[in-house]
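== Protein entry: sequence and backbone fold ==
=== Local backbone shapes as whole numbers ===
==== Amino acids and backbone structure tokens ====
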Amino acid sequence: MRGKFLSLIGIIILSVQCSNDNITSKGNSAPENDDSILGEEFEAMDISQSQCKVSSEGGMSVVEVANYDWWCISEVEAQIGDDDAITIYNTKSQNPLKYIEGSWFRLELIEEGKRQLRIIINKNETALARRLYVSISAGVASGEIVVDQQSANIKDLATDVEGVFHYLSSEGGACESRLISNDMWSIIQVEEQIGDGDVQVHNPSEMLSSAIIEGSWFKVEVPKSNCAMLNISIGESYQIVVRKLTITMAVGEDNVTITVVQEPDYVVSDNGEPKVRNSRHDVVSKGGEYTSELLNYRSWRIQSVAGQLDNGELVEMYRYDGLHNVTFVVGSWYKVEIPKEHGNMLLFDITENSTSQQRKVVVCMKVAGEEYSLEAVQEPAYL
């Protein structure tokens, strides 16, 4: 391993293998294959570049040992990022070694008047720094060369995302997207759309540092513990239309779009005739808000709304073909609405009646292929 000297037996074998080379040190010399060198005190190796810095673009460095004419590579270790797993290239059985090559580097021993080590580093296209430990030796003398290569600049990396599209059932659930090439991102905005309704735009709060956006049926979050993840939670849908989120993420100078689609709710909890709580409301002349609830089905649809007077006169009529999901209707003295959060609810909002006539709002709802009527009857003003 790095930093260890050759064992006694290894040195003897190495001396025999390299018998054609001379080992010389300033003020010291030793004859070929003379094991007496094991008892000599050799100088520390004077390495021209014991620390080599390489940019992400890669490059080449040449290293010399000033006080030894002969030396060889004894071991090479390669490390990527902070990973504890280090790849070891043991060269003892390969001496005299001419070159050693890894997936992102090449080491060459060359003889150009003086023995040199040429270090060639390939371009780094990842977000992880890389490091080489090159151990060299001459007899019992040893040294180490450390080569550090920078990671690629995040803005220069091709953005790669795992999970750019998610499709969920009406029951909702959790899903996640993961940034692969880079190490962090942030939320720019979330666009919410229900059916063919208007798109609602949600921008991140500065107080939350662009880490979370939450709506009535969804939550989008970049967890502090892992800024390369995007966690998405979708609530259960009781609506008979598709719900959609379009999430725009910033990665350096690039933008990435994540899409989440939730299918409509067609599930019923009980077959047969619809059961409704408060199918009729008696409204006081001052008006107010009233609620009807579908008990055994999860959602319904507005088919028509009619405004009538007590003498049978039809004031207004709104009819819908069923091709579009109508969630609210505003009449001359009322508003009826299916709230986004509860597709099995119908809200009546009745204004004050200042006339001497009774007023009625009749809403025809469709559920499970059948029509069902709800009404709100408002008493006249007592003048």
Residues 1-39 have pLDDT under 50 and may be disordered.
